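Worked example 2:
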Amino acid sequence: MTETIDDLMTRRPKVEFAVELSPACIEEFQMRGFASIDRITTDEELAWLGEIYDRLFAERVAPLPGAYVELMRTHEAGRDAQSQIIMPEVRFAELRQTVLWRNGRALAAQLMGVDASMLRGWGHMIRKPPLDDGALPWHQDEAYWDPAFDYHALACWMPLDPATVESGCMSFIPGSHRGDLRMHHRFGGDHSDHVVYAEDVDSSLAVAAPVSAGGAVFHHCRTLHSSGPNRSRRVRRAYSNEWQIEPARREHPAPRPWFDEVKKAQRERPS
């Protein structure tokens, strides 16, 4: 009898793994808006998360309405598409009990200069199939969030497989977190309705950030980043958790016209 996802959740490895950030890593994050570490969890947990991850995507699980998203549309029947699952921990609380979650929260607090008890987290899993030409366009994470609030946040991005330049690792524009939120636009075309891109990005400044499986890269919510196509013959699986203090409501929403464009496109697309 095949195990259900709930059955798999009960097999969560009870492991411990302590990790600390070096002063050099913290300084790098402050200066460049991103920094990597070699390891954030154990081999046992990484293997278990891989099983969970594969089942969630195979069954196209949506923890919330609309939380399973195809980032790139494909016009070929049966072709694998880039996709993501947002907030899997809402349905599967065991994901909040992992070493990845605990370490991510502790290290995020250190990088943000706040107490870990102030942070709330939510996750998303991103899957790039093999030999896929689609690239995720340059953007800042904050561009996707409700313009009625101000944010202090960062992401902890962990690949479950080696993230190389060939397989579509992330690239960043160093120092871009220190500026304002850029003007973004809805991408359209073969991209999902919700995908946006930042204008006027000088990609010649980009720095690629390859990461080994089980390592992690942290980036500020305003750091410009992108990921290239997966030209390798294996899937590129990544699990990211966003960490933020409680967003502060603004007196007036920030002017972000692309936010309304995205909502309009989603409402008008035939179901």
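The longest strand covers residues 119-128. The longest helix spans residues 43-58.
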